[in-house]
Amino acid sequence: MGALDHLSNIFDCSTGSSKKLKKRKQFQTVEIKIKIDCEGCERRVRKAVEGMKGVTQVEVEPKQNKLTVIGYVDPSKVLARVRHRTGKKAEFWPYVRYDVVAHPYAPGVYDWKAPPGYVRSADDPQVSQLARASSTEVRYTTAFSDDNPTACVIM
Predict the structure, then answer these.
(1) Domains and CATH numbers, the chain
(2) Those residues with Cβ within 8 angstroms of residue 78's Cβ, 6 or more apart along the chain or in another chain
(3) 85-94 tens-digit pLDDT
């Protein structure tokens, strides 16, 4: 906002004194998981969000069933619009790259429905606790490891 815009907002008498300023939305990336079967579904999903105010870029990845919206948007409004316009079940992207997680094959983290290279995000403390191995487990697994030749003479 420039100085003239600021002064005109201060001295504006046309709307009354109870004028509320709108909060600006942040520039962000919204990732949504939605089932995309064919090119028609891809086109429908793309058109559902391209017309939204504040959207600068839309990427649809049909192989991963992923929609990425970039711009000055509210994530909950994008999700609601996709659900309403397409009639499909949609949710926020629940996956992270598997190399980000310490133990990607732990019971609460691994998801066979996830796209290749992704696992479910583990923000739950019980799931992340299951993913950590105890010190005795680590000791036994490294004792018979081929990477540690001095650990066990029997092998």
Answers:
(1) 27-93 (3.30.70.100), 97-141 (no CATH)
(2) 30, 32, 49, 52, 69
(3) 999 999 998 8
